[in-house]
Amino acid sequence: MVASVVASTSVVVGLISRVQARKLFCDPSVSVALLAILSNKLHRAIHGQSTLSMPRAYTRVYAVIDAVVAESADDAPPLPNQTSIAIAANVSRETVSRAMKLLVQRRAIVKEGRRFRVYDRSVFAKLAAGDALR
Fold first, then answer.
1. Whole-angstrom Cα distance, residue 53 to residue 131?
2. Would you state the pLDDT for residue 126?
3. Which residues contact 90 (CB under 8 A, 6 or more apart)?
4. Which residues make Cβ contacts (< 8 Å) with residue 133, sequence separation at least 6?
5. For residues 102 and 6, what is the distance between their CA atoms, to the nearest angstrom?
6. Which of 27, 105, 132, 134 is found 20 to 30 A from 11 (Cα to Cα)?
7. pLDDT at position 66, please?
8. Is the pLDDT of residue 22 over 70?
9. What is the pTM of this model?
10. Alpha helices of 1-134 — where are they, by DSSP H?
């Protein structure tokens, strides 16, 4: 059986025999590690769905940005482009642009060329919880 896989992020793929796979997956530490990875992915998916249920468009945008900030170990992580944020928040790119303009005015993010970078991480948790910026 041949399967096709499309990766949305950079991945490393390895091929092992069925016998080796059975031995590998019988190791409890491997099972625990896989369960941790899967539970993290499930948690992110649930968070994404709960973000889409937020009634305000700006709050959804801020929640998407907060998730990016929370996942990054960098003190000033770069943000995805506005189109990606719009898709994740289920809003128009123009709404993201207006929300980002408010964030720049609040000095929560800074514009570097055509990209945005987080300047003040503490703002996003409050905004994602529904605190108003306006």
1. 16
2. 76
3. 52, 60
4. 58, 62, 102, 103, 106, 127
5. 36
6. 27
7. 85
8. yes
9. 0.64
10. 18-26, 28-52, 57-71, 82-89, 93-105, 122-128
Return the CA Rg of the chain: 19
User: Residues with Cβ < 8 Å from 119, sequence gap 6 or more?
Assistant: 76, 107, 108, 109, 110
Q: Which residues pair with 107 in a beta bridge?
A: none
Residue 67 has a pLDDT of: 85
- CATH fold for the domain made of 55-134: Arc Repressor Mutant, subunit A (1.10.10)
Domain residues of the chain, as ranges? Answer: 17-53, 55-134
pLDDT digits (tens, 9 = 90+) for 88-133: 899 999 999 999 999 999 888 888 888 888 888 788 777 777 666 5
Residue 89 tokens read as: 């928040």
Count CB-CB contacts under 10 A for residue 110: 14
Both tokens assigned to 52: 């889409």
